[in-house]
Amino acid sequence: MSGNFIYDVFMGAILNPRIGPIDLKMWAEVRIPWVIVFFLSVSGGCKQYETLGYVTPNMAFMILATWLYLNACAKAEECIPQTWDMYHEKWGFMVIFWNFAGVPFSYIYSIVYMARQDPSKYQFSTPTYVLLYTTLLAAYYIWDCSMSQKSRFKMQTQGLTNFRKTFPQVPWCIIENPTYIQTAHGNRLLTSGWWAYSRKPNYVADWIMSFCWGAIIGTATPIPYFYSVFFIVVLVHRVSRDFERCSVKYGKDWDRYCEVVPYKFIPGVF
Ligand SMILES: NC(=O)C1=CN([C@@H]2O[C@H](COP(=O)(O)OP(=O)(O)OC[C@H]3O[C@@H](n4cnc5c(N)ncnc54)[C@H](OP(=O)(O)O)[C@@H]3O)[C@@H](O)[C@H]2O)C=CC1
Ligand SMILES: C=C(/C=C/[C@@H](C)[C@H]1CC[C@H]2C3=CC=C4C[C@@H](O)CC[C@]4(C)[C@H]3CC[C@]12C)C(C)C
């Protein structure tokens, strides 16, 4: 707690509040928003079927994209306790508001648009659809795989090796004989898998997915791009907080890690 009332209400005080067996933050981040997002996509599909007699490839794209996200959260729930959100983000107004209002109702403007507008406004050529679907699936693969590699690596170092066999376990989601930097603090920093190429492969892939959620409308309206614009601000802010914290926590070991994995986001670029 900082002592500043407004800041403390916004950022929260308790890290992992529970009611009995229910971890409130875990429940709110995983079980609520993505379920609403998925069912809003399905509702958009039903609306199109009712009014047009078919579901456009654009709406089908959003149903697939939101299903993939929801399914990832459900099938890999065991990986979530290892992440920044569970370890460092407190249960304050910011997290509560965003889980209940922000994610479910502001990430899906493309669905609202498609449910109300004529498909001629957001129709693409077949190669463009192929490009969009391929980009989404490739980004999903890198995101799921990289998150799984890091979380499972951490679980293994804690002696947890019994992983759930949920669908889909993407190829390379567990790294055999990973390379890492042993820090003086005791933790290990993974330097293989997707983590050999960039310090935030998960952010890049997640952001590309968010961009696709808007790009599926093309240039008909800028509003569906809200999610990707908002998200890049969140991720850039998180990166600076995270790198600062890691630099203090790991000291010289963090500098060594940055030499081994020099790129923050896109290998060879930045
Ligand atoms: N759609 C949405 O609205 C949102 C989605 N997200 C997504 O959720 C995911 C969050 O991932 P999360 O893991 O929490 O965040 P990060 O990837 O930012 O995790 C950061 C922490 O992981 C540890 N770490 C970093 N690099 C390594 C490494 N090479 N080896 C081992 N440990 C490392 C450090 O913690 P330490 O060493 O202290 O353990 C660090 O503080 C992202 O994919 C993000 O895009 C996040 C917010 C909102
Ligand atoms: C910050 C918020 C919510 C964040 C969640 C949506 C993500 C936080 C941690 C994420 C995940 C961790 C590990 C995973 C393993 C992978 O194999 C699959 C994906 C995932 C389950 C991934 C999914 C997203 C998170 C739960 C709020 C405030 C918006």
Estimate the helix proportion, in percent.
Answer: 55-70%
End-to-end distance: 35 Å
Q: Beta-strand level of the residues, as a percent range?
A: under 5%
Uncertain regions spanning at least 5 consecutive residues: none
Mean pLDDT: 96
Number of helices: 11
Spatial arrangement of strands, main beta sheet: 1-2
The number of E-state strands comes to 4
Estimate the global geometry from the Cα principal axes: globular
Give an overview in words.
Helix content is 60%, strand content 4%. The chain is built from 11 helices and 4 strands, in the order αββαααααααββααα. The chain has a two-stranded antiparallel ribbon with strand order 1-2. Helix 8 (126-157) packs antiparallel against helix 9 (201-215) and helix 10 (226-250) packs across helix 11 (252-260). The chain is globular.
Short description:
This protein has 270 residues and is mainly alpha-helical.
Fold topology:
Blueprint: H1 5-11, E1 18-19, E2 22-23, H2 24-31, H3 33-52, H4 57-75, H5 84-88, H6 93-106, H7 109-116, H8 126-157, E3 180-182, E4 188-190, H9 201-215, H10 226-250, H11 252-260
Antiparallel strand pairs: 1-2, 3-4
The ligand C=C(/C=C/[C@@H](C)[C@H]1CC[C@H]2C3=CC=C4C[C@@H](O)CC[C@]4(C)[C@H]3CC[C@]12C)C(C)C binds next to helix 2, helix 4, helix 6 and helix 8.
Distinctive features:
270 residues; mainly alpha; 4 strands; binds NADPH dihydro-nicotinamide-adenine-dinucleotide phosphate; steroid biosynthesis; endoplasmic reticulum; steroid metabolism; sterol biosynthesis
